[in-house]
Design a protein that fits this description.
The protein contains ten helices and twelve strands. It has about 325 residues and is of the alpha/beta class. The protein has a single domain, classed as NADP-dependent oxidoreductase domain (TIM Barrel, Alpha-Beta Barrel), CATH 3.20.20. Strand 9, helix 6 and strand 10 form a beta-alpha-beta unit. Helix 8 runs antiparallel to helix 10. Bound molecules: NADP nicotinamide-adenine-dinucleotide phosphate. NADP nicotinamide-adenine-dinucleotide phosphate binds next to helix 1 and strand 12.
Length: about 325
């Protein structure tokens, strides 16, 4: 495993983190608690010491599973738990709320579910236009000063929103979507975080499974699986993305004797400014592939070949915008 330090802290985290959205079950077709706990223990055995969760993942279920897994294993001080704040849910529908009162309530709920007395990295999940960013930031800074959280993060924020946040609080981490097929942050967020020296926890490095190489044209998703409404998984785009995956797999084999999944995660880790990739495994066996992604680098020629494949195969690229929860009326409106 590769390790690196979170900016402005002494946390030496693994560059591959365990993501636990799917482990929460909601929007991923359900979950199995024992299998999920075994997955987290397998991640720890493989040297992964950073676990990302959120209250909204399974409406508390993911945090509870993470809490049980860490309590069973012990050594709380050897793991870094990243969770989030600022989304609420009513009858299965999710809305944003980053107000002071909401954050104060949520931090206690998360600590209870996680069975912990501090959170290592506390991240505002989505910007909330109905609350002044400074109010959110000041509340996060207060939690930090009180020792309830050990690093402050934001997720899905633009550079302008981060600037506003940093006028009222320290900021250590940023969590944006990033993978071979979703590179919007190249334009603004990545240059910004490099300049400000913030740590980046990149989510969706496997593009919700698309970049694992295991999907076929007739792969079906059932229940509440979000990929039923993910535009990348619908015709005609699905065929284009699968064609890209096939060509990337061929390239990885030819150049390195590797698999497309190795190449996809390595590509994320090699991008300047990226701290860690959040790997959404929910079965222990899925973590076998982690070894193929660490301790090597892509050369410049291969990176150029990757870009060429993407240009030639994907006629209508589309981002992950479909995942954004509804926005609220702006404070200034
Ligand atoms: P991801 O890691 O790109 O992909 C997860 C998918 O990869 C799952 O469908 C899983 O398959 C599949 N997978 C993993 N390892 C595999 C293997 N070895 N072989 C075959 N398939 C494999 O996407 P993600 O879960 O959306 O993102 C990762 C994490 O980022 C989340 O868990 C969460 O912690 C975080 N996240 C944050 C935000 C945010 O707004 N801040 C948004 C999204 C995600 P199965 O379905 O078959 O298990």
């Amino acid at each position: 495993m590769e390790y690196t330090v979170i900016s402005g802290t002494e946390m030496n985290v693994s560059r591959i983190a365990q993501g636990t959205w799917a482990i929460g079950g909601w929007m991923w077709g359900g979950t199995d608690e024992r299998e999920s706990i075994r997955t987290i223990h397998t991640a720890l055995d493989k040297g992964i010491n950073l676990i990302d969760t959120a209250p909204v993942y399974g409406f508390g279920v993911s945090e509870e599973i993470v809490g049980k897994a860490i309590e069973e294993r012990g050594h709380r001080d050897k793991v870094f738990i990243a969770t989030k704040v600022g989304l609420e849910w009513h009858n299965g529908s999710v809305s944003r709320n980053s107000s002071r009162d909401r954050i104060r309530k949520e931090v206690q709920d998360s600590l209870r579910r996680l069975r912990m007395d501090y959170i290592d990295i506390y991240q505002v999940h989505w910007p909330d236009s109905a609350v002044p960013i400074e109010e959110t930031a000041r509340t996060m800074q207060a939690l930090f000063k009180e020792g309830l959280i050990r690093a402050i993060g934001v997720s899905n924020y633009s550079p302008e929103q981060m600037n506003q946040f940093m006028s009222a609080s320290e900021l250590h981490t940023v969590q944006p979507p990033y993978n071979l097929f979703e590179r919007q942050i190249d334009r603004d967020v990545l240059p910004y975080v490099r300049e400000k020296n913030l740590s980046v926890l990149a989510y969706g490095p496997l593009c919700r499974g698309l970049l694992t190489g295991t999907m076929q044209p007739d792969t079906k998703f059932t229940g509440d699986d979000l990929r039923q409404s993910d535009p990348k998984f619908q015709p005609p785009r699905f065929a284009q993305y699968l064609n890209a995956v096939q060509q990337l797999d061929d390239l990885a084999h030819k150049r390195y004797g590797k698999h497309v999944m190795d190449l996809a995660v390595r590509w994320v880790l090699d991008q300047p400014g990226i701290t860690a990739a959040l790997w959404g495994a929910r079965h222990p066996a899925e973590l076998e592939a982690v070894a193929g992604a660490v301790d090597w680098n892509l050369d410049a020629d291969t990176r150029a070949a990757v870009d060429q494949i993407l240009r030639e195969t994907i006629a209508n690229p589309i981002g992950p915008e479909f995942m954004a929860p509804p926005t609220r009326n702006s404070v200034s409106a």
